[in-house]
Amino acid sequence: MTKFNADEIASVLQAEIEQYDSNIDVREVGTVLEVGDGIARVHGLSGVMANEMVEFPNGTRGLAFNLEENSVGLIILGDYLSIKEGDEVRALGRLLSVPVGEAVIGRVLDPLGNPLDGKGPVASTESRPVEVIAAGVSERQPVSQPLQTGIKAVDAMTPIGRGQRELIIGDRKTGKTAVAIDAILNQRDSGVKCFYVAIGQKDSSVAGVIKILEEQGAMEYTTVIVSGASSPAPLQYVAPYAGTAMAEYFMWKGEHALIVYDDLSKQAVAYRELSLLMRRPPGREAFPGDVFYCHSRLLERSSKLSDALGGGSITSLPIIETLEGEVSAYIPTNVISITDGQIYLQPDLFFAGIRPAMNVGISVSRVGGAAQVKAMKNVAGGLRLDLAAFRELEAFAQLGTDLDAATQSQLDRGYRMVELLKQGQYKPLYVVDQLLSLYAGIHGYLDDVPVNEVSAWEAAFLQFMQDQKSAVWKMVDENKDKGDTLKKADDPTTQAVVAAIKEFKKSYKPAD
Amino acid sequence: MTEVREKAVFDTGQQYLGAVYAKALLGAAEKSGNAESVLDELNSFVDDVLAKAPNLESTLASPRIAVEAKTAMLDRSLGGKVSVELLNFLKVVARHGRFDCLRAIRQAARQQLNELRGRVEVFLSAAQSPSQESIELIVSRLKALLGKEVDLHIDVEDALIGGVKLRIGDTVYDASVANRLVRLKSELLSKTGQQLRDNLDRFALAD
Lengths: 512, 207
Fold this sequence. Notes:
Strand content of chain B: 5-15%
Structural class of chain B: alpha+beta
Number of strands of chain A: 16
Largest interface: A-B, 35 and 29 residues
Number of strands of chain B: 4
Oligomer: heterodimer
């Protein structure tokens, strides 16, 4: 244990006091009229601007939220219990900003950038305002680079590009967070910085997520921003903007970032609480009229910058929790219309053991196709439609009618594809592995494998490819971005893969 | 039965109403050219009469008393003693049942008159009550700086320890010792803390 030298500290203090230059402190002030539930109404502050930061006597910060004729409505970002009527509030003349930079990586922070992980202050010299206007049209370019989530079903059927906003939507306990966490885990070697913003979540679940990220080595490139269920509504409201500000630092540096908002329905609820307390008129489901703007201005900040600006990007995975599958509720429809596609998770699929429980029929990616790895497009281009057709056939087959051979074989293929698309949690797959197993499934090399052995077959096959056919594996890896890879039978890569699959099938013995 | 009313200092509704009534009062008084004296009368009515007879205030503010009775009461007690403008104004306030806003009206009227006359209200807080010379010095300096007449209100606050604090509108110019100490403390904490973090070895005792 280190002992401190009091004399040395005293000398530093003395030097500081000698240098202390006290100018007259000029401040714009107001007086608290009423305070409670995370908001305060203040008399005075006549020159304060919308969203300007203010400070209460106890050091708590606030934001000017409502500018009215005779008073100012503030939201209090922190402890509001020790603020009293009559307290002096001072305007700081600044916008709310958070520390950004490499120093935030690997940290667990609150929405104001204060550390929650006990690892000391954030050693950052830079900061960015929490609310900024998103990049304009001339500063952007279309999504062109893939962001691999490592989940077969997502990368094959709803590919995500860097700069895209892909919504993850579903009821509670359908694996929404798991999809997002897998996507973060898969960024280990991609250089993408990850931000996980937990809004209104149980602190126990957030602790669980942090533990997984640490165990899997993902905290080396991830920042967790926590505003748990016990945080006051103003902090829950600003959390996603704060996380985005931290991610934007990397985007403007020409790097790539992935941000997960878990979840935006709780943020909307926090915003509703603030708005109702501030007596803004309630609209549908008692949400204020600008709740759409609240989410659109947030998600608009996820973008792919033009090459002139460095080509950086923020990809966002907002999460929305639905009630009883009700996607036509207010917030889900809003966010569906803002985002560039959605991954829809269903409880019945989840409980049938299909995990990730993605409903491929209504899950889409509106822009990711342009960014998909070429080889994946060649292999899995028709997979979504095939699976949708299979679902229809499956319902028909349940009627017990005799089926012709062609229909039966289509059904058999479908059962195996569904089985093949199942994937364990925290086991993201590299794109080449995804390509190889999907190629085998789609081209019928699994048709003679019993359905319940598909996953064992896949595991053994991928092991075989890595151990014994690493040349073929490397060949696919090198050619995965070329237009014809795995498209036609006479392509050299295709021939090598087919030969390898055939060789494996000869040697494969199912374990009893 | 007496009605006890809380003094509503920060009622924004009352403030709004006060501003409207004050504008009307000043308009009427300016027409007859004696705005200052009407305002002085109003001040004295509030501070000397109502403050000493809270029952009178609650009676005038009570909706249970008929308007005629209130007007008659005002006539009897103030008739001939105050200017016609103020008496009429008080009757109007009573008729509209806004007697509870009288203090807000007074404050708004003072502000509006200051604005009208190009005067600025300045609140000075000091640890000890300043001498007459220093007050004159402060007023003349403020006049030169603001380019306006100054309406100075002085308040003694022990908590300031030393120095003065000026408040003009919503802006505070704080040169008090208390404030300097608070700022010194936060600056020392942050700077010394930073030095400690930057170079921990320097502060460690060699074993």
